[in-house]
Amino acid sequence: MLLCSSTLLFSCEEEETWNPQDSSSWGYFDGEINGEKVHLQNTIYKDYINKGSRYTHSKKFVDSKRAYYININVLDKRDIHLRCNLMQFEVGTQYITASIPSFQEKDDYNAVSCWATDSTNVCNEFEVKASRPVKLEITDIKYFYDNDGNAYTLQPKLIEGNIDAVLYHGNDSISIKGHFETK
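Above: the chain's sequence. Below: its structure in token form.
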């Protein structure tokens, strides 16, 4: 009887299913790129969105908030890579008018970089025009907390926001508009 009831107990437990949102690297982008609807959720080697720390060489940004970047990468079709650097990372809307020179690791200003591969596999850098700044709205930041309830502001747990950007390379342009979340 005991064996039968313990077997019944274990068979009634719900099987846990893995939810991608529980992953520490989860992120998504839902919007339009060049007028085409795009929904991406992180995959291992393909499209992805992520965030990370930026280190600056300027003392004007040294406080409890570290600068961050947000990447949105759509690696099918045009291989579009978009990176937004934010030096003052907080909830609110920022208008970014500067582009980041290719592969520059340190900068002390809000900036955007974007590059895309064309049909001949040439990588082109797209830039922000001051007359059409990138609108980046951070709508929510969730933090990890210590045992005393203090937020670890150096490492956000989740960033949510909206982007509206048009970036240019000669007569070509890339339009990116949508909502994102990233861990």
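Helices lie at 2-11.
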